[in-house]
């Protein structure tokens, strides 16, 4: 039975359940939360805001669809996101918090952890962006099913140079649940294209992604770092105004040793470690419920003690999670681990307050 009223506070999942055509209406606006894990938490107003849309045309279209049984014609202006462009001070995109996700060790699941954090924060109603700083080995676009190259627009607030040119800016890709993403894998049409760049170029690209992108005003910017303690991590730790670092580890002793190296680097740079996430922590057999430590016993507490930070979460090995990640449908995950991660990160950010000013895009 269709709902009697459709208001800004209407829950998206409930609406689609009662009025199936609502999913087609929302998709026509580019608001695809109706098909992802965020929809059971999000209202129409929050979903529209996350996608940079006005809620009034969406409500009008849904009301028409309820009466006619068809998706009405939608004006282009009503489905075009309104991003906050850099330039004049009042219009710069601002980040309330900037968090780097780091390990030092490859293959421990930094990108997956970044994705889960982003999804959990979106489910909590936060505006989230991901800067994929793993320039030569980017994974974020694949996790979210993003394939189209980044758009390029002129800086709307910059005066043209004598040649009539203005600085080009990247337009971030947007996931189904309105997480903004910039990645080197979205610079070319083919995701297998290798970025054969030396360290200084990699560092410059990271700065460009951060400073020369039409980011919206975000509650949290997550920066997915590559393995190691070299150029890319140093660029982020030294050059960007980050609020802290989330360390990702796994039970294997070799991984924990290398992660401790990363923790020492972060302490040397005088940046706070917000918490430790142990990925692939254990496996629960679906038939018996028995728990197996596939990579050995947990060392999360030891890593956290050395990092002088709490354990944010222990993420189990999950074939379902891996399938969603490999198929670009990570946002469809229905697992409390996302919410657990997001709540723990928000608590850690509160425990490490920063100066009142926000970070403005230059």
Overview of the molecule:
With 362 residues, this protein is of the alpha/beta class. It has two domains: 12-79, SP0561-like (Orthogonal Bundle); 89-360, Rossmann fold, CATH 3.40.50.300. The chain is built from twelve helices and 13 strands. The chain has helices at residues 12-18, 21-28, 44-50, 55-68, 110-123, 140-144, 199-211, 231-239, 253-268, 300-307, 319-326, 337-351; strands at residues 94-102, 128-132, 151-154, 168-171, 173-174, 180-182, 218-224, 244-249, 273-278, 283-284, 291-292, 311-314, 359-360. Strands 1, 2, 5, 6, 7, 8, 9, 12 and 13 form a nine-stranded mixed β-sheet that branches. A two-stranded antiparallel sheet has the order 3-4. The chain has a two-stranded antiparallel sheet with strand order 10-11. Strand 10 and strand 11 form a beta hairpin. The model is unreliable at 85-92 and 356-362 (pLDDT under 50).
pLDDT < 50 stretches:
85-92, 356-362
Helix content: 25-40%
Work out the helix count. Answer: 12
What count of structural domains?
2
What is the CA-CA span between the terminal residues? 51 Å
- For the record, the CATH architecture of the largest domain stands as 3-Layer(aba) Sandwich
The CATH superfamily of the largest domain turns out to be P-loop containing nucleotide triphosphate hydrolases
Q: Biggest β-sheet, characterized?
A: 9 strands, mixed
Spatial shape:
globular
How many beta strands in the DSSP annotation? 13
What is the CATH T-level topology of the largest domain?
A: Rossmann fold
Strand residue percentage:
15-25%
Order of SSEs, N→C? HHHHEHEHEEEEHEHEHEEEHEHHE
Q: If you average the pLDDT, what whole number results?
A: 84
CATH class of the largest domain: Alpha Beta
| Radius of gyration (Å) | 21 Å
Q: Structural class of the secondary elements?
A: alpha/beta
């Amino acid at each position: 039975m269709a709902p009697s009223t459709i208001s800004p506070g209407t829950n998206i999942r409930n609406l689609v359940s009662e009025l199936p055509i609502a999913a087609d209406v929302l998709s026509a606006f580019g608001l695809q939360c109706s098909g992802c894990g965020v929809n059971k938490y999000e209202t129409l107003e929050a979903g529209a805001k996350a996608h940079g849309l006005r809620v009034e045309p969406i409500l009008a279209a849904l009301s028409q669809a309820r009466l006619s049984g068809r998706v009405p014609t939608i004006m282009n202006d009503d489905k075009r996101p309104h991003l906050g462009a850099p330039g004049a001070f009042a219009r710069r995109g601002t980040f309330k918090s900037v968090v780097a996700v780091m390990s030092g060790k490859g293959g421990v699941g930094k990108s997956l952890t970044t994705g889960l954090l982003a999804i959990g924060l979106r489910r909590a109603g936060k505006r989230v962006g991901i800067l994929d700083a793993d320039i030569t080995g980017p994974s974020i676009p694949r996790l979210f099913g993003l394939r189209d190259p980044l758009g390029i627009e002129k800086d709307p607030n910059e005066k043209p140079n004598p040649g009539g040119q203005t600085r080009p800016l990247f337009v971030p890709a947007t996931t189904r649940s309105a997480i903004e993403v910039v990645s080197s894998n979205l610079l070319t049409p083919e995701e297998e294209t290798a970025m054969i760049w030396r360290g200084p170029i990699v560092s410059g690209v990271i700065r460009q992604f951060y400073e020369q992108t039409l980011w919206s005003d975000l509650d949290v910017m997550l920066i997915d770092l590559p393995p190691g303690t070299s150029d890319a991590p140093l660029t982020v730790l030294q050059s960007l105004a980050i609020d802290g670092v989330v360390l990702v580890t796994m039970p294997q002793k070799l991984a924990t040793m290398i992660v401790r190296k990363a923790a020492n680097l972060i302490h040397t740079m005088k940046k706070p470690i917000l918490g430790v996430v142990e990925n692939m922590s254990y496996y629960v057999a679906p038939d018996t419920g028995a728990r197996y430590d596939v990579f050995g016993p947990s060392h999360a507490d030891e890593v956290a003690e050395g990092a002088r930070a709490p354990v944010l979460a222990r993420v189990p090995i999950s074939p379902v999670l891996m399938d969603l990640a490999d198929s670009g449908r990570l946002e469809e995950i229905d697992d409390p681990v996302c919410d657990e991660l997001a709540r723990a990160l928000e608590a850690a950010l509160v425990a490490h307050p920063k100066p009142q000013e926000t970070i403005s895009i230059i």
